[in-house]
Amino acid sequence: ARVFNGKEAAEMGVVNHSVEQNSDGDAAYQRALKLGQEILPQGPVALRAAKFAINRGSEVDIASGLSFEEAGYSQVINTKDRLEGLSAFKEKRPPRFSGE
Question: How many CB atoms lie within 10 A of CB 41?
Answer without folding.
Answer: 11
